[in-house]
Amino acid sequence: MPNPVYSPDLAGIQVGETRISNVEGIDGRLSYRGVSIDELIKKPFVRVVWLVLFGAEPTVEQETSLQSFMALHSSLSAEELSLLRSVPERLHPMLVLQCMLPMIDPDTEHGIDGITDDAQRGLLLASKIPSLLAARHQLEKGKEPIKVNAHLPFHENFLMTFTGRAPTSSQIRMLDVTQILQMEHSFNASTFAGRVCASTLAPIQSSLVAAIATLSGELHGGADQAALEMAERVGTPSAAAKFVADCLADKVKIMGMGHREYKVVDPRAVILKPMAEALCSSGESKNLFDTLVAIEAACQSEFDKKGKQIWANVEFYKGAVFHQLGIPAHYFTSVFAMARVFGYIAHYLEFSANSKLIRPSARYVGV
Ligand code: ACO
To answer: Which of 193, 200, 303, 333 is most enclosed, with most CB atoms within 10 A?
Structure first.
């Protein structure tokens, strides 16, 4: 028998096939279903959701039925709200999602024609996430959750119910773009965890929760919160160079920097940086943005000296955008999950169509 391949981090190992997205790490390109992110961000959010899930742009009827389905299933029932109220106050929103999603009945009589039961279940749960986060945020502030308005588009409803203020059209657009950029990213750690879970023939709810749990760590989705908190701790652009030098001397990772796949700046960061700059135009937010820019410049200079290809990833400037939309840092990763969940559903559907148990072996090294 040939020697088994040994790879504790699976770096560079292809563990499956996908048609959902293509990460071209050397060239810094990303596309979903063959469409580049530069084109995707010009499309309405729900059109991109349909494309990612089903592989082709929706017809007008399909787009309308998806919109109506998501609006109809977005509000929380009295039972769901009561469950949410019972979740301990100190739990991080990512843990709240992990507690709440399996408690929601994903079956509905008001489905979308022509899609599978699993797609419908996934979409129903995805429709609830904005309301769960918004209600939790209001409860956290000692206020009552704000009722969803089924006539408003997905992200307008979220910003309205989350912040308690009517968002501007530019804020809605910024959130649409950010969430499209975060929707899908091939075999990242959380999507892979969801596929492993799917491979055991577990239901879609379990696969989504496995993926969301995996997204929460700081080396993955949790880097968004960590990167913004890091910039706040650094405080001013003039403190950035010393901060970066100290981190590297102490072997502390700089959050929002580096990526397993990208050997150039993450193409999502390329789009997010000018958005953050436009939003952070004065006062405290401008200082925050300038501090991020100074940290990035200091990192580039230090990594360049060491000959390392480490650049800003999607998380580095995203926090500045979320911050300006009125989303507190401890909600960043859960708002990320609110978008990535559509990618997870697409992977569950793709994997289930040709399922095989994922079960690697270990190198036993003795007791
Ligand atoms: N800060 C400082 N040094 C870094 C960083 C960083 N952010 N990223 C990589 N390095 C260094 C490592 O210390 C290591 O140095 P060494 O060879 O001298 O030991 C080398 O670069 C390779 O790093 P690894 O962590 O082994 O490389 P990997 O491919 O596993 O890294 C990762 C990818 C985990 C994302 C890493 O860059 C990192 O920890 N970044 C910070 C966390 C982060 O921003 N995560 C979000 C990624 S995007 C997403 O998941 C949505």
So the answer is: 333
Per-residue pLDDT reduced to its tens digit, 282-333: 999 999 999 999 999 999 999 999 999 899 999 999 999 999 999 999 999 9
Report pLDDT digits (tens) over 15-69: 999 999 999 999 999 999 999 999 999 999 999 999 999 999 999 999 999 999 9
Sheet containing 21-24, strands listed edge to edge, beginning at the edge strand earlier in sequence:
21-24, 29-32, 35-36
Please name the residue whose Cα sits nearest to atom 18 of ligand 1. Answer: 251
The structure's pTM equals 0.97
What is the rounded CA–CA span in Å between residue 347 and residue 245? Answer: 40
Query: With b meaning 16 or more CB within 10 Å and e meaning fewer, what string describes 273-288?
Result: bebbbebbeeeeeebb
Atom of ligand 1 nearest to the CA of 227: 44
Q: Is the distance from CB of 103 to CB of 114 less than 8 angstroms?
A: no
CA distances from 185 to 20, 33, 94, 191, 346 (A): 9, 11, 19, 8, 11
Q: Whose CA is nearest to atom 2 of ligand 1?
A: 253
What is the C-alpha separation between 165 and 162, in angstroms, rounded? 8
- What number of other Cβ atoms are within 10 A of residue 116's Cβ? 15
Mean pLDDT of 82-87: 97
Q: Which fold has domain 21-217+328-352?
A: Citrate Synthase; domain 1 (1.10.580)
Q: Using a 6 Å CB cutoff, which residues line ligand 1? A: 188, 219-221, 223, 253-260, 308, 310, 313-315
* Residue 190, amino acid: S
Q: Which position has the token pair 């990618």?
A: 343
- How far, in Å, from the CA of 54 to the mean position of ligand 1? 33
Architecture of domain 223-324: Orthogonal Bundle (1.10)
At 36, which helix (H) or strand (E)?
A: strand 35-36
**Closest CA relative to residue 190, chosen from 80, 70, 347:** 347
